[in-house]
């Protein structure tokens, strides 16, 4: 158990350092995320094409070939043009934040008599504001939004691991 605490603490510190680096250089971090996503899309497309070749039914083969080809092409496009990939992913983030924010606001109002409903409302409003801020600067926001958000996530995960390691140390 002691070894787990030590490794969690060190991993947490590494994640914090990587998160801070991502926030300081958001374009580099965003580019790295986009390249990884492009590679995942490419591999998924190739696997779908391989699966299509093994399919017996012509409809399954046709659909898998089309979807595999589109997925692989999207992966190649994202890898070949990471700035386009960052702009597109940023647009997806805008849509996500706006839909999530709207959903949280609606749900919070349904829970309004319950204790703590305001926190959900505040979270929804924050998501809406973040979505609108990123949209207001799109496509330029693609150069910073993904890296900053990944950095914040890494710092948060790192802080959680360090906190858990310290709590278990006591």
Give an overview in words.
The structure is a single chain. By secondary structure, the chain is an all-alpha fold. The chain has one domain (2-169). It is 88% helix and 0% strand. It is built from six helices and no strands. It has helices at 2-24, 26-54, 58-80, 82-110, 117-137, 145-169. α1 (2-24) packs across α2 (26-54). The two termini are 13 Å apart.
- How many domains, in number, for the residues? 1
Stretches where pLDDT falls below 50 for ≥5 residues?
none
Question: Gap between N and C termini, in Å?
Answer: 13 Å
Number of helices: 6
Q: Which helices and strands, and how do they pair?
A:
Layout (H helix, E strand, L loop, with lengths): L1 H23 L1 H29 L3 H23 L1 H29 L6 H21 L7 H25 L1
Keywords for this entry:
88% helix, single chain, 170 residues, mainly alpha, 6 helices
Q: What's the short version?
A:
The protein has 170 residues and is mostly helical. The chain has helices spanning 2-24, 26-54, 58-80, 82-110, 117-137, 145-169.
């Amino acid at each position: 158990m002691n070894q787990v605490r030590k490794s969690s603490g060190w991993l947490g510190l590494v994640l914090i350092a990587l998160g801070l680096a991502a926030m300081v250089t958001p374009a580099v971090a965003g580019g790295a995320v986009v390249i990884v996503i492009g590679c995942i899309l490419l591999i998924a497309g190739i696997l779908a094409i391989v699966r299509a070749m093994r399919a017996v039914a012509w409809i399954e083969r046709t659909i898998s070939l089309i979807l595999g080809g589109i997925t692989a092409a999207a992966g190649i496009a994202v890898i070949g043009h990471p700035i386009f990939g960052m702009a597109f992913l940023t647009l997806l983030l805008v849509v996500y934040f706006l839909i999530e924010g709207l959903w949280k606001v609606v749900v919070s109002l349904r829970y309004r008599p319950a204790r703590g409903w305001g926190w959900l409302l505040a979270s929804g409003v924050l998501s809406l504001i973040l979505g609108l801020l990123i949209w207001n600067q799109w496509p330029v926001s693609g150069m910073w939004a993904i890296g900053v958000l990944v950095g914040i996530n890494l710092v948060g995960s790192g802080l959680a691991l360090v906190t858990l390691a310290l709590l278990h140390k006591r």
